[in-house]
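Worked example

This section walks through a single chain of length 278. The input is the sequence exactly as stored; nothing has been trimmed or padded.
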Amino acid sequence: MIIDAHQHFWELGRFDTAWLEAPQHKPINRNFLPDDLRPLLDKAGVDRSVFVQTQHNLEENRWALWLTEQNPWICGVVGWVDLASDDCEKQLEEFTPHERFVGVRHITQDEPDDDFIVRPEIIRGLKVLEKHQVPFDLLFYVKHLKHAATLGRQLPNLPMVIDHLAKPQIKAGNVAGWQDDLKAAAECPNICCKLSGMVTEADWENWKPADLKPYVETALEAFGPDRLMYGSDWPVCELAASYQQVIDALRDVIGPLSETEEAKIFGGTATKFYGLKV
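Given that input, the structure is written out below as tokens.
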């Protein structure tokens, strides 16, 4: 069972998609829906996928869960609740009965406060997730990655996953700071990492799989296959690569691994982490 642990859908006009109007995002400024993704998964030999939020909006959770009912191959929804709100637990309890609501994410990378994720009111909200055993996706830039180990220690029973390796500076070939903070995060057994979002941190026009290899190797050394999972970051990846190019590049640079280890990265880890019913 091969699972893409990180993809998105959006429909222009349904929610706030103003970010797509930036000139560099023109190639993905259109609708991307399950009927667009399914043929790409079939061609790449991927069986299931996990939808990850793009909105700070409870309505997107409801919409995405409705999509899973129409498309059973979408085996999980990583949605959103307002971590800072007094209603955080009430919001969460609307969605946890749905077996395909498997996690929560906040777009931390866009918060003006670099220390947003460790603010007392946010920690309080994360403790609600910990209480209900709902995993949390860490959407960080490198500058936020130092907080991962802090969270891992403060919330030892909250499963967390670092999206996109915290967006290292692949185009510049830079590992300074990032490498040490990633290894520190990996020392917390409740933190996993997604091998996703790399092509859009590389040179969009001229990247090659070898550019990704040092970052994948660092993650493998730090986390091991038991705590790594493949994600396409489709359709954002389309800015730099096709779906097929993304999965082929990861397969190219990930070896040499045993079949068992590859199976964990391409499905086993995600199934265990999110509690997917596949």
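What to look for: The CA atoms of residues 185 and 210 lie 25 Å apart.
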